[in-house]
């Protein structure tokens, strides 16, 4: 197996170069390679992505810390881009969660203020914990941090549950508790973001998930509203799923994959992304050296 340890940039370094920082979701190491080749400077591992792609489950808080750490480690071994990880509600121990994700080479994580039996941020039925309980989660994570470059982001789902004013109040309290950045979930307008960023004095992330409550604003619109990070958590995953479904249906229907070939990545394109031939030469060299020694 090749040695893929590289120096990686931090989220703050990426944010210093690009604002709003486009942060794109990946569900595995290979999609991380594709995002890197497309020119993104920051990546994201969604809790829904882990649950859906790695476990085949809905995003209802059923994944474990081990599930998330496994995907995190594989992605971070593949690319040197900073990875922000969805840590849900902290898996019952925000300090342990931070340490595990930092050890897996993540650049940061976000904790949310829902109860442990959480819901997707764009679904009804969300229930929030108290400000004090969420602040305790943040304190525990920040106190466990040994690398000041590791970002602790606080997500608030309050806008849809308690209203925008309450969401802003919660965000400010979370910053007081030590949060470096704020994930403002499911805001519905640019005016909401303008008000939010005007009152919350740390970088604010906008979640531009498709088919959700937040319109698909452009980078320029978000920039004018004061947003510093733009998140696209599952865009490629949804497109991959749609393409895969069409290919499976075509093969089953036609008894051949011929009609689906135009939708496929070629073998050469796959090999180029993986740097396959260089790795193959490395394996051949190592094999020849072992033969010479024996």
Fold and architecture overview:
By secondary structure, the chain is α/β, with parallel strands linked by helices. The protein has helices spanning 11-17, 29-38, 47-55, 65-78, 94-103, 131-144, 158-161, 164-177, 190-199, 219-224, 235-254, 267-274, 276-293, and strands spanning 21-25, 42-45, 83-86, 108-112, 151-156, 181-184, 204-207, 229-232. It has an eight-stranded parallel barrel, surrounded by eight helices. α8 packs parallel to α9 (190-199). It is globular, with a radius of gyration of 21 Å. Residues 1-6 have low confidence and may be disordered.
Helix content: 40-55%
* Broad structural category: alpha/beta
Mean pLDDT: 94
Radius of gyration from the CA trace?
21 Å
Strand content: 5-15%
Strand order of the largest sheet: 1-2-3-4-5-6-7-8
Question: What separation lies between the terminal Cα atoms?
Answer: 21 Å
Largest beta-sheet details: 8 strands, parallel, barrel
Low-confidence stretches: 1-6
What's the count of strands? 8
Shape: globular
* H/E element order: HEHEHHEHEHEHHEHEHEHHH
DSSP summary: helix tally: 13
Sum up the structure in keywords.
alpha/beta; globular; 13 helices; 8-stranded parallel β-barrel; 294 residues; single chain
How do the strands and helices of this protein lay out in sequence?
Blueprint: H1 11-17, E1 21-25, H2 29-38, E2 42-45, H3 47-55, H4 65-78, E3 83-86, H5 94-103, E4 108-112, H6 131-144, E5 151-156, H7 158-161, H8 164-177, E6 181-184, H9 190-199, E7 204-207, H10 219-224, E8 229-232, H11 235-254, H12 267-274, H13 276-293
Parallel strand pairs: 1-2, 1-8, 2-3, 3-4, 4-5, 5-6, 6-7, 7-8
């Amino acid at each position: 197996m090749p040695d893929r340890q590289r120096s990686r940039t931090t989220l703050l370094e990426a944010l210093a170069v690009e604002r709003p920082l486009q942060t794109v979701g990946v569900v595995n190491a290979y999609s991380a390679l594709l995002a890197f080749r497309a020119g993104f400077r920051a990546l994201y591992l969604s809790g829904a992505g882990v649950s859906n792609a790695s476990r085949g489950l809905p995003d209802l808080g059923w994944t474990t810390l081990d599930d998330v750490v496994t995907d995190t480690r594989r992605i971070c071994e593949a690319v040197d881009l900073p990875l922000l990880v969805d840590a849900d509600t902290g898996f019952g121990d925000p300090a342990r969660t931070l340490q595990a994700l930092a050890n897996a080479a993540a650049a940061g994580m976000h904790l949310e203020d829902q109860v442990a039996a959480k819901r997707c941020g764009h679904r009804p039925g969300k229930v929030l914990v108290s400000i004090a309980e969420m602040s305790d989660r943040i304190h525990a994570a920040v106190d466990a941090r040994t690398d000041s470059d590791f970002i602790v982001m606080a997500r608030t789902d309050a806008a849809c549950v308690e209203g925008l004013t309450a969401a802003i109040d919660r965000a400010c309290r979370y910053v007081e508790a030590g949060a470096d950045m704020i994930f403002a979930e499911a805001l519905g307008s640019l005016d909401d973001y303008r008000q939010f960023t005007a009152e919350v004095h740390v970088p604010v992330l906008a979640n531009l998930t498709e088919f959700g409550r937040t319109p698909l604003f452009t980078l320029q619109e978000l920039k004018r509203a004061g947003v510093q990070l733009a998140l696209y958590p599952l865009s490629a995953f949804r497109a991959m799923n749609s393409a895969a479904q069409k290919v499976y249906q075509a093969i089953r229907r036609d008894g051949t994959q011929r009609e689906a070939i135009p939708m496929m990545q070629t073998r050469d394109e796959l090999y180029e992304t993986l740097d396959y031939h260089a790795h193959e030469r490395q394996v051949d060299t190592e094999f020849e050296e072992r033969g010479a020694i024996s």
